[in-house]
Automatic annotation (TrEMBL):
It comes from the Eukaryota. Keywords: Coiled coil, Exonuclease, Hydrolase, Nuclease, RNA-binding. Residues 470-544, 565-643 form the RRM domain. GO terms for cellular component: nucleus. This is REXO5 exonuclease. SUPFAM superfamilies: Ribonuclease H-like (SSF53098), RNA-binding domain, RBD (SSF54928). The gene is Rexo5. InterPro entries: Nucleotide-bd_a/b_plait_sf, RBD_domain_sf, REX1-like_exo, REXO1/3/4-like, Ribonucl_H, RNaseH-like_sf, RNaseH_sf, RRM_dom. GO terms for molecular function: exonuclease activity; RNA binding.
């Protein structure tokens, strides 16, 4: 993101993985902002969205994370220009999901009322099976415990979780009794104001299962209020002046009021619990309960009208009423539980939403007609459910999104400007047209002949090189050396995946394969020439043609902007908890985040961690301190980080998903790849240069996202 508008996001572990739905959230909010009721993404935050000049998505057709790491050195400018990187989880067709193609059937031309019972609005039984609600829950009625979020769902949707690093200091409700289908439901909603400390709670409402309001309290924020957001929160300066109640008072009251088996209900309840700085184990989130395709969510206002027949958040009122919103969410959950998924699916909410949009578009058409034919032509087109909402909003207001690429991408509704035949032509058009568009998608391609035909061989080459980089050979040792001592000494550098004794040599050597790159590098740097198990040993990586540029690659990884201010620490005792480590490292200056890698299968943490500091110099100072530390009797070793969270996760996946292939076939593919790899490197280097050129032509305050969508 260029200059003053800022993007903030976590960059460790699971937070490094985003779905195309989450990317959609980011693009939608960046393109529309609050003026079209778009909300901040659930997984990151854009500051000063109103300052954004535009959004540019660069799609590298059929290229994936595999290509990024295979041609890591060639993507020189891409690595330096883009600070935030995330693994994009695979989807059946990423571009289709981005443009919204084929997500839902097109709407009928006849408008229906929101509460219409016309047979055209009721889906056929065959259509019910494809409804996302039926696909998620089935057709049978279930008890409320079937609809509470699992721990994994809570993590995925950024609920505060007990013991997680970001929830230090949060209050736990201690509602630990097992839930049953007769456990009490409570509706919760909060209103927030923007303060010098960020979003802070200024009003809290709690209602019981009968809809009675148990709590409806104003709260004095700790920070100075920057924006009361009166239009949405209903909070004014005058209202807060006499208030004495603080967040800690509300936390105490909520904790006392909730029974030990309470289930909290809310709409996007994660935001409320985060603002309250409270953790509750059992929740029903109505924004997820009424499931939609492509991860999109219905608004509470729409659901209240369509399902309950109630008007809430009326424009005549000053801001939202949290008690009203809490009651609406509670009643929606009760309706879902009592009626069952099949009855809810029969409401055909997608069709009702389309009807609402048609009515709005018709009103907008009348209002905008004097502005001329161009806008009128846009409005004459019915909104198509097969397109994402935010692209519709852009089109209806006359802001045509721009698409530049080599090939037609279907009826995406984007203004496809002069289809080009080469990356050079696409770049030339982009330099001219992108400044005129608020939302642009630019697609570059190396050509199918460069990607698809070599994919299997490319995958094997990258896997092989990563394996070599994670592997070290150490020796020679005496014939009767103690293998346990060797494992212990090398284990202090980081988690070992495998250790074998090499017997083909005159004296024995050991071959050690580590789980993380830093561990292998630390072993080479700290144990080469050291005395281990009674022998002065040499430590080195395998010597192969692919490893000749290993030192260059290691240096580039170390200097990568993503690893700025991040250090790797090994030699931790596995008995230490994350809380223990937070306390031990708390004395380090400017420590921002501690990340403890876990085994993807067992869930147990490794004997190493990553520390991220606010300033690079603080990371350098911490290295000196830690390398002289002994923690709980264990000597620590540390160095600059090499692999960001998404890379080490990807390495693990690469190593565990390696499929066995026929030797001759793979050999032929590898040979074929070697013949053209030099040419491919040149193409990637040229592509990297074009990305740099396009990026540098963008206006200040442009959000730019580069996507490696892969092939499936």
């Amino acid at each position: 993101q260029k200059k003053s508008s800022r993007l903030s996001a976590a960059l460790f572990g699971e937070d490094c993985e985003v779905s195309h739905d989450q990317l959609y959230e980011l693009l939608k909010y960046a393109a529309l902002g609050k003026c079209h009721s778009a909300t901040q993404p659930s997984w990151c935050r854009i500051y000063h969205q109103s300052h954004l000049a535009g959004v540019v998505v660069i799609v590298l057709h059929e290229m994936s994370q595999l290509h990024f790491y295979k041609f890591y050195l060639q993507f020189k400018h891409l690595r330096k220009l883009f600070r935030h990187r995330f693994t994009l989880t695979p989807s059946t067709n990423f571009l289709a999901s981005l443009y919204g193609e084929g997500a839902n059937p097109k709407p009928q031309n006849t408008a229906q009322g929101l509460n219409s019972t016309s047979s055209e609005c009721v889906p056929k039984s065959s259509d019910l099976q494809s409804d996302p609600i039926i696909q998620k829950y089935g057709e049978k009625k279930r008890g409320l415990t079937s609809y509470t979020l699992t721990l994994e769902e809570q993590k995925k949707n950024y609920y505060p979780i007990k013991g997680s690093p970001g929830c230090k200091g949060y209050i736990y409700t201690e509602c630990d009794q097992p839930r049953t289908d007769s456990s009490p439901l409570f509706g919760l909603d909060c209103e927030m104001c923007l303060t010098s400390k960020g979003n802070e709670v200024t009003r809290v409402s709690l209602v019981d299962a009968q809809g009675q309001c148990l709590l409806n309290e104003l709260v004095k924020p700790e920070g100075t209020v920057v924006n009361y957001r009166t239009r949405f929160s209903g909070i004014t300066k005058k209202m807060l002046l006499p208030v004495k109640t603080r967040l800690s008072d509300i936390q105490t009251r909520l904790k006392k009021m909730l029974p030990r088996d309470a289930v909290l209900v809310g709409h996007s309840l994660n935001a409320d619990l985060q603002a309250l700085e409270m953790i509750h184990p059992s929740v029903i989130d109505t924004s997820l309960l009424f499931a939609r395709n492509e991860g999109r969510r219905f608004k509470l206002k729409f659901l209240a009208k369509a399902v309950l027949g109630k008007d809430i958040q009326c424009e005549q009122k000053l801001g939202h009423d949290p008690a009203e919103d809490a009651r609406a969410a509670l009643e929606l959950a009760q309706f879902f539980i009592e009626q069952g998924p099949a009855k809810v699916a029969e409401l055909n909410l997608e069709m009702l939403l389309t009807t609402e949009k048609l009515a709005e578009a018709s009103q907008n058409k009348a209002a905008l007609q004097p502005q001329g034919c161009r806008v009128q032509e846009q409005l004459n087109e019915l909104p198509d459910l097969s397109k994402p909402c935010f692209l519709d909003c852009l089109r209806v207001t006359g802001q045509n999104p721009l698409l530049l690429g080599r090939q037609e991408l279907g009826s995406s509704g984007l203004c496809q400007s002069n289809l080009s035949t080469s990356n050079k032509q696409i770049l030339q058009r982009a330099l001219e047209d992108v400044p005129l568009s608020t939302f642009s998608i630019i697609e570059f391609s190396l050509g199918p002949e460069s990607i698809a035909s070599h994919l299997a061989g490319l995958c094997e080459k990258v896997r092989s090189k990563l394996t070599d980089m994670l592997t070290i050979y150490a020796g020679p040792f005496e014939e009767s050396f103690c293998l346990k001592s060797v494992r212990k000494e090398f284990g202090r550098c980081g988690p070992i995946r495998s250790l074998t004794v090499v017997t083909e040599t005159y004296q024995p050597y050991v071959c050690i394969q580590y789980e993380v790159l830093e561990a292998a590098q630390l072993a080479v740097e700290s144990l080469n020439g050291a005395e281990v198990a009674g022998s002065c040993i040499k430590v080195q990586r395998p010597v192969t043609a692919a490893m000749l540029d290993c030192d260059v690659l290691i240096k580039e990884l170390e200097l990568d902007v993503e690893n700025e201010g991040v250090i790797y620490v090994a030699g931790l005792k596995k008995s230490l908890t994350e809380t223990d480590l937070q306390e031990e490292f708390s004395q380090l200056k400017d420590l921002e985040t501690l990340f403890l890698p876990k085994d993807c299968q067992s869930g147990k943490h490794r004997n190493c961690c990553f520390l991220k500091f606010q300033k690079s110099q603080s990371a350098v100072d911490a290295l000196e301190v830690i390398n002289s530390w002994t923690m709980k009797g264990s000597t620590l070793r540390s160095r600059n980080a090499l692999a960001s969270g998404h890379l080490w996760r990807w390495i693990w996946q690469m190593k565990h998903s390696n499929e066995k292939q026929g030797g001759n076939m793979l050999y032929e593919k590898m040979e074929q790849l070697c013949d053209s790899e030099q040419e491919l490197r040149k193409k990637v280097k040229k592509l990297d240069h074009r990305i740099k050129k396009l990026y540098r032509s963008l206006q200040n305050n442009t959000l730019c996202v580069v996507v490696f969508p892969g092939v499936n």
